[in-house]
Amino acid sequence: MEPLTTDATPPNHAGPPPLERLVSIDVSVATVRALNNELHHPSAAAYEVLQPQGAHAIAAGIDQALTVDIRGHAGYYCAGMNDGGQIVVHGNVGTGVAENMMSGSVRIRGDASQSAGATGHGGLLVIEGSASMRCGISMKGIDIVVGGDIGPMSAFMAQAGRLVVCGDAGDDLGDSVYEARIYVRGKVGALGADCIEKPMRDEHLAELAALLTAARLDHDPRAFRRYGSGRTLYHFAAHNSAAY
Amino acid sequence: MTDPSVLGLRESATFDRATIAGIQRAAETGVYDIRGWGAKRRLPHFDDLLFLGASMSRYPLEGYRERCGTDVTLGDRHAKYPLRLATPVTIAGMSFGALSAQAKEALGRGASEVGTSTTTGDGGMTPEERGQSKHLVYQYLPSRYGMNPTDLRKADAIEVVLGQGAKPGGGGMLLGQKISDRVAAMRTLPPGIDQRSACRHPDWTGPDDLAIKILELREITDWEKPIYVKVGATRTYYDVKLAVAAGADVVVVDGMQGGTAATQDVFIEHVGIPTLAALPQAVQALQELGMHRQVQLIVSGGIRTGADVAKAMALGADAVAIGTAALIALGDNHPRHAAEYAALGSAAGFYDDFQDGRDPAGITTQDPELSARLDPVAGGRRVANYLRVLTMEAQTIARACGKSHLQHLEPEDLVALTIEAAAMARVPLAGTSWIPGAGL
Ligand SMILES: Cc1cc2nc3c(=O)[nH]c(=O)nc-3n(C[C@H](O)[C@H](O)[C@H](O)COP(=O)(O)O)c2cc1C
Prior knowledge:
The complex is a heterodimer. By secondary structure, chain A is mainly beta.
């Protein structure tokens, strides 16, 4: 296998990763396997991924506070199950970016495909561009902030966490949503089953302001509307059969 | 009560008593019946097959003396650490939530004692079952309840669940009465609400996506763990081919007799195909790909005895999984609870209200008092005993067929009792050379 680092310092697996060192890994030379192996057993605290070329599962399974800059477009499941990493993609990403994230942050400078942030339990996912269908599907505590629009069926069965959309949301937003909170600044195509508009109280304005700040977006929280569960589908009942 | 038939009364075969009761129940409640267990209707099954023991043209092996191996290795296609089990009888995935923590622990103890694996379920991994399970398969389900990379790394194998034999194409359901605070917290949902488990995975659709999903799971776990793909039996030939193409190390095929914790009765009884019909399709798919025995096949749905184990293996399975039978071994449906079953409107031998949370045996419940009835150590011992019996029974048959390893059993050792079974299992009707549908 090709050496991973373009840096002269030999890898140090013994002590804590030296902070000052930036390791560059060129995915057109090294494999994704070699990249992820390094990120799972890091010899440094800061990484740069060059020529990602849309490869899948880039930087998946990070379990500590590394910073990773991916310079280009990534494929499916980029930063999948991230648990503590601070990951920035300087490009677009495919399906399932940061799926099932536990903690840390993932920032996409471009657009994201389907199921961004799916099932995430924690951490912050920021998509500066737009996200496709099923953004935040089944989310379980993650915060997702999208600078642009999101596609249909987003926040389907979303359980917990916050989804902030600075642009428009597609049809069937929040279908069968549980306790996740959804904030949209633009138009909403149509609300999904049991998803309703809810009043914006001070606590909501405050949490939204904090999320926008964390995402480094300076929209006025008062320009957003809030959506969440009507909680009418929480108990199975025959008269709901059209909604099921 | 006198049997009405002695009075010359005739019961309708079309509208039998269970059907009439079903209509009456529907008319009274306005909701369909949700229950546990698997299909209850009579189906072509392993009972319809028989072994041809050795005689003139085959040499048998000496019982109690000559070795008949039972070990199996699962998932050695890509994984750094495949599972090496002492017996091919494994414990199927049953969720914490559906089952009590004590039941999960007991299954882990029983399986570990005999050197086989147990499986998590919809709802995540509990420390009890991880602690007590030597080989633990971690299910990766559409709901992703309790899914996290830490537990993923603790698992010995990962099972991507597409479906279950009891409800292929259906999601899950855990009714509010079983959602304790602990179950709710593991699933990140409010306590007491009826929980839906999604029927589709949230971040992939179709076999091409699945291949990438499997790649991601391998990357996250550094290519250490076998990846299983579990499907409910329907279009099994195609599903197995696609699962292998997507990179599965092990394919799990669950027939329509397979148990469930809570599904609509109409779904259980009318969707999917019998285990017996699915198994030869799976084997054919693997053989055509040149992957039989490279990608291992686990079959479940109605496995009760060592004869069932031996028949499944003779038809080409590498291992089997048990759900319902393991619960019975733990104490489910035991006559000692007869009075309590009666109070619930059921009876020992008929109890299937696993969805209801009031299981007198303390197995399919989250009620602290009921679940405390099941001692995980004693329960584990019963499960281990039962697994040993299944293994020894299968060995008995294999030796009679002259096989020094369970895996040497082959379709050639089998005949069928019925035309249906002969057609499905693709073995000749007993006493004939006729395999309906073959070579016509
Ligand atoms: C109480 C109970 C809970 C179950 N929970 C799950 C589950 O969470 N995930 C799953 O894939 N299958 C589940 N199953 C199905 C089993 O994994 C297995 O496919 C089936 O029980 C095998 O058939 P058998 O019961 O006839 O042995 C469950 C079955 C039962 C009886």
